[in-house]
Amino acid sequence: MTGHSKVYTASLVAGCATRLRLAVVDGGMRFSSYLLSRLAGELGLPARTLLRQTHLSRSFTAFQTEAVITDRLPTFLERQPCGLVLLLAPLQTYYDDQITPHEAENSLRRSLAALKTLSTQQPVLIADAEIANPLDEKAHLFEVMRTTADVVWQVQPSPSGYTISEQRSIWDVTTKPSPLSLTGTG
């Protein structure tokens, strides 16, 4: 899920609407328990229930993000099955000056490979807005992440609020239907 900065709110709404346990990895301080409580009320759920079934891990560096995705998350999911894995702003940690462009790309590719494997077992939703001025050497990272996705949802402002449109990058026999697809297409 990408586009306007409301992508983080939209992804939390989508996650909460499933009414399933959520495993949230937050790389950009985008998670808000206050928003979750408000969403619970709008969905007719007790806020406590929704907060209890939401498991949060925050990462502050690219290496922490990679460790959470490749090691800690799979281990956690074995102990605590969740209906959806939600990543909020994972690229924020890769855009940091403290990691070289080469290290950032390699770490991101390892993380995306782990998420691709994980997505064969359960839905994974990545929410990130493209930043305006990344370092030139890291400008391609967003596209690396975007092209790895089976389905891309684009969040854009509209006269009535926001619209979400579905985009697919590759149409071939290997494309599988996304469990989160708006259209159910393959």
Task: Give the number of domains.
Answer: 1
CATH overall fold name: Rossmann fold
Strand order of the largest sheet: 3-2-4-5
CATH-assigned homologous superfamily: P-loop containing nucleotide triphosphate hydrolases
Weakly predicted, low-confidence segments: none
What's the CATH architecture? 3-Layer(aba) Sandwich
Count of DSSP strands = 7
Secondary-structure element order, N to C: EHEHHEHEHHEHEE
**Helicity range:** 40-55%
- In percent terms, what proportion of residues is strand? 15-25%
| Gap from first CA to last CA | 18 Å
Q: Describe the sheet with the most strands.
A: 4 strands, parallel
In short:
The protein contains seven helices and seven strands, in the order βαβααβαβααβαββ. By secondary structure, the protein is of the alpha/beta class.
Can you characterise this structure?
- The strands form 2 sheets. The protein has a 4-stranded parallel sheet, sandwiched between helices.
- It has helices at residues 7-17, 33-42, 47-52, 62-79, 91-94, 101-118, 141-148, and strands at residues 2-3, 22-26, 54-58, 84-88, 124-127, 152-158, 161-167.
- Helices cover 40% and strands 19% of the residues.
- It contains 7 helices and 7 strands.
- A hairpin with a 2-residue loop joins β6 and β7.
- The protein has a single domain (2-167), classed as 3-Layer(aba) Sandwich (Rossmann fold).
- The protein is of the alpha/beta class and 186 residues long.
- The model has no long low-confidence stretch (mean pLDDT 87).
